[in-house]
Write a structure and sequence with these properties.
InterPro entries (chain B): FMN-bd, NqrC
EC number (chain B): 7.2.1.1
Oligomer: heterodimer
Strand order of the largest sheet of chain B: 2-1-3-4-5-6
Membrane topology (chain B): Single-pass membrane protein
Helix content of chain A: 55-70%
Helix content of chain B: 25-40%
Number of helices of chain B: 6
Shape of chain B: globular
Order of helices and strands of chain B: HHEEHEEEEHEEEEHH
Distance between the termini of chain B: 85 Å
Number of helices of chain A: 9
Radius of gyration of chain B: 23 Å
Distance between the termini of chain A: 38 Å
Subcellular location (chain B): Cell membrane
Number of domains of chain A: 1
Strand content of chain B: 15-25%
Structural class of chain A: mainly alpha
Radius of gyration of chain A: 19 Å
Largest sheet of chain B: 6 strands, antiparallel
Family (chain B): Belongs to the NqrC family.
Chain lengths: 215, 249
């Protein structure tokens, strides 16, 4: 990355792996459970959060010296809420079907702790460019996990990816179903998202022993 | 920077400016995008009405597939011959009948002096007149609604249901074909009296081969949503009975 200094690129790359908001900091879990039954909503959610956190971090960072500290949490909330409403309106206008599918969860981005967390922990103390990178990085780290979970849940739960039947037709018994494969309906339900996230955490920590906490 | 951000007057000023700025940004967005959102809502309604009439892009036993949004307006105009508004004994033609808000009409109708306006879409498919009625009721968590297409004798030609927030995998299944397809062929009447359709546990007729029993199979684990569908059909379709009686005289 010639464009970014080493310190800056760390801001983007760290949250993707060793400082991932979901698997390491365990933030933003509830939306990760709710919308990952299929791949498409996972991706839309990831993109929406990248937008909200990227722009939000910049806005907060630009205002960091003029925000009255007494009402700073409220100011942060207003910034998130504004961005989320914009995302919601744009989805309703240009991707109506999808916005129905995601329904309340777009609105719930407001309560996603990753966002308030990054505003409070990073944007309030750093310049706009670094805050932007940090926002994009953290949101992408969140989105990455959503997409991985969404991929496995849709593939194993419904036998489809983006709605296309990749495993053959379960009714006609073609493809894998011909040799007795069955979809695991349990994968579609929220508890399995937690288990998939757990498996990702396990894989990640067994590959990088430094991440394992000592008790 | 030299601003004292701890002063109360500054805090209040900041809050006021922030609210005004944010408010105008959002208002701008909302009014700018409103026509697009409204159009989307209209297309969705048209898709639903057509779906109830069995005008759709379903393939075999696959998922619910609507007429695509870019074509739905034309298809709607081809199939739907008349949009009627029934108010008491008065029946008027109104090309904007689908804009009638069932929820508001229902609230207004609590006042006895108000005669509720009932939208009815008259379509024609394969040379047969089909009447599509909108219905609205309560599920377990939130609103459920739909469209019911019947012929002159109040025999169901097709239905479409949707919901706001039923449980995924349980109540939310009312918008799946295996539930909706069962309604086709059932009649709202039992003899000459209005009976409605029961979403019944223990009906034990998964393919709905008996279409004379005024009942379809319920969804496992979604009793309250199912009862909601039963109640919704009974409550809203009943309102149209006088119209159909007159039609058949």
């Amino acid at each position: 990355m010639g464009l970014l200094s080493k310190k800056d690129s760390k801001l983007i790359l760290d949250p993707l792996a060793d400082d991932n908001p979901i698997t390491i900091q365990v933030l933003g879990i509830c939306s990760a459970l709710a919308i990952t039954a299929q791949l498409k909503p996972s991706i839309v959610m990831a993109v929406s959060v990248i937008f909200v956190l990227g722009v939000g971090n910049v806005v907060i960072s630009l205002m960091r010296n003029i925000i009255p500290s007494k009402i700073r949490i409220i100011v942060q909330l207003i910034v998130v809420a504004t961005l989320v409403i914009i995302v919601d309106q744009v989805l309703k206008a240009f991707a109506y079907e999808l916005s129905k599918e995601l329904s309340v969860f777009i609105g719930l981005i407001i309560t996603n702790c990753i966002i308030m967390g990054r505003f409070e922990a990073f944007a309030l103390g750093n310049g706009p460019w670094r805050s932007f990178l940090d926002g994009i990085g953290n949101a992408a780290g969140y989105g990455l996990i959503l997409i991985i979970v969404g991929f496995f849940r849709e593939l194993l739960g419904s036998g489809t990816l983006f709605g296309f039947q990749v495993m053959g037709d379960p009714v006609e018994k073609t493809g894998l179903y011909a040799i007795g494969y069955e979809n695991n309906g349990f994968m579609v339900l929220p508890p399995m998202a937690l288990i998939v996230v757990g498996l990702i955490i396990w894989v990640q920590r067994s590959r990088n022993k430094e991440l394992i906490e000592e008790n | 920077m030299a601003i004292n951000t701890d002063k109360n007057s500054y805090t209040i000023l900041f809050a006021v400016i922030m609210v005004v700025v944010v408010g105008s940004i959002l208002a701008g967005f909302a009014s700018g995008l409103k026509p697009l959102v409204k159009a989307n809502e209209k297309y969705e309604k048209q898709q639903n009405i057509l779906y109830a009439m069995n005008v759709n892009d379903n393939e075999g036993d696959g998922d619910v597939t609507f007429i695509p949004t870019d074509k739905v307006e034309d298809v709607f105009n081809t199939y739907i011959k008349k949009q009627l508004v029934i108010q008491g004994d008065k029946v008027t033609e109104d090309p904007e009948a689908f804009l009638i808000d069932l929820k508001k009409e229902e609230t207004k109708a609590k006042d006895d002096s108000y005669e509720r306006r009932l939208p009815l879409f008259v379509g024609e498919k394969d040379g047969k007149e089909i009447y599509v009625m909108p219905v609205r009721g309560k599920g377990l968590w939130d609103a459920i609604w739909g469209f019911v297409a019947v012929d002159k004798s109040m025999t169901i030609q097709g239905v479409y249901f949707d919901h706001k927030g039923e449980t995924p995998g349980l109540g939310a299944e009312i918008k799946q074909r295996y539930f909706m397809d069962d309604f086709t062929g059932e009649s709202f009447l039992n003899g000459n009296a209005f009976e409605g359709i029961n979403v019944a546990k223990g009906n034990n007729d998964p393919k709905n081969t008996n279409t004379d029993d005024n009942a379809v199979d319920a969804l496992a684990g979604a009793t309250i949503t199912g009862d909601g569908v039963t109640a919704m059909l009974r409550k809203d379709v009943r309102l149209y009975v006088p119209y159909f009686q007159k039609l058949n005289q």
